[in-house]
Amino acid sequence: MSDRKLAGQFFDAAIGLLQRVRDEDAGDIEAAGILIADTVADGGRLFAFGAGHSSLAAQDVVYRAGGLALMNLLAVPGVVGVDVMPATLGSALERVDGLASAVLDSSPVRAGDVLVIISLSGRNALPVEMAMNARALGVKVIGVTSVAYASETKSRHVSGTYLKDHCDIVLDSRIAVGDAELTLETIEAPFAPASTVVTTALLQAVMATAAGALADRGIEPPLLRSGNVDGGHEWNGRVMTEYGDRIFYRR
């Protein structure tokens, strides 16, 4: 089989998943966008968290051109990405009880805010406790996960629950357990994960919905512009000054 054919199969698989979440998650995407718009309008703050490769989708909505300036990364040391050595430490930390509580207690997250939690499996202690503790604080939680894991794997949290069980809104990425879209007789392991493609698309759809909902209310969405276009830095400076009390990644 040619490499080009495999590439085409991956694109087909990714496009199929994107079409599924577009159609099957439409109501939840709209609800999540409205919740974010409500929070911005009411003076709340926005946070995103993800561990391991799920952190890529969280970072994708923080401090970027075309995105909401108010979205902040809730970072947990050691689990943000593969920069920690050894890389396996990040996976181990996701299973540590109590870590989420320590992070939230040290963060600016408070009642009335929104926390987006991204976890493909939703089975590890960290995302489950993050959602549970955030809601106990009066924070609204949007979970981005593959609901299939809840029926095909065992929870690693003492409660036996998953991220999806502790969210105000759940966005189902529809990713199959194992996160690999392709197989080949000559390759023993399945390969070509699509979770990052789908999860980032889901979140950008939510942010687009939120921006539109704010505009419909006569509120200018606090969007950032690219610093690589003329006037971008000036625009961003104005937005960050206006919303400085709700932006934490610049401090």
UniProtKB/TrEMBL annotation:
Q: What positions does the domain SIS occupy? A: 36-220
User: Biological process (GO) annotations?
Assistant: carbohydrate derivative metabolic process
**Known InterPro entries for this protein?**
RpiR-like_SIS, SIS_dom, SIS_dom_sf, SIS_GmhA/DiaA_subfam, UPF0309
Tell me the CDD domains matching this sequence. Answer: SIS_RpiR
Taxonomic superkingdom: Bacteria
Cross-referenced Pfam families? SIS_2
Which one of the record's GO molecular function terms can you name? carbohydrate derivative binding
Query: Which family does the UniProt entry place this protein in?
Result: Belongs to the UPF0309 family.
Stated name of the protein: UPF0309 protein SO3561_04958
